[in-house]
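quick one, 304 residues, struct below
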Amino acid sequence: MEDGFGQWPYVVALVERGAVATRLTGFTIDGDTQNITSWSSTSLPAYGTIYARLFGADLKTPLNRNFVFTGKDASGPTWPQRASIPFASGSQTPRAPGIALTTSTPVVTPNFEGPASCPWAEQVTLHETGGFLTLLGLPPLTGMTVNRSAYSAQQIQQIFGTTRLAPYESLPETLCFTGEGPTTVKLTGITDSSQLALPVTASVTATLADPANSPSAFTSPSPNMTASLSADTAGNVQPAAVPVGFSGGSPDWTATVAPANAAGSWLTVSPLRKRLGNHSHLGIGGRLIAGSLHRLPLPRFHGN
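---
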């Protein structure tokens, strides 16, 4: 059975049942000669067992693969053994390594009442999307740039608190800027896997707003507001409405959902972007484990 990573791991074994010690001299799969050094041993004692851990890749399933084993007894006679083994598709969509960078502030408004070192604070979140441990800050294969300026492994550690991104983990952090204009953040990691040591890359852009054209402030929802959602016996979430309000004007607003990976795929939000007057409502829902009750941070908002 395919394992969800596009591979078919399996174990083949030979068992001696005739009370005669023997030796494995070769084996083929679909006519292709295989390396016998992958076996636990090529010597098969009387009533003993030897085995090999193998895996298939790039298979067009379902199919039957034909195995032929050949050997020679200690007394001289040779023997073959044959087996046909079915290989099936997995029940899950194959997973692939990946990371994503998102921002809840595509337009960053200045806050001159905050720390002098951080008048423009961009909220970014790094997500692992494929279910793989990912390593950051290992030059020259991995790294981070902000507006093309390279960040060291130590700086990545200071920003995200780690250089190891766990499977499906999301790390929300703040990047500080001292002047208006566009920003581009790019981050490259490498999958920590004995079979898939692959580079993965993500980037996100934002605009640091001119203080004279800063958007209106939110009056609702509050920064740490939570919503209680419950599911019926079928796992369907009872919809909830969240008020969205501003201090004035008719700003655009956007909402982002985190984490941006399979761990947050159950949540639905509508609309994700709208232009209205100074108030509206955001609908949230989704599909949860039946009968469960969840408390979660609301999707992040930004007005511009």
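The two ends are 50 Å apart (CA to CA).
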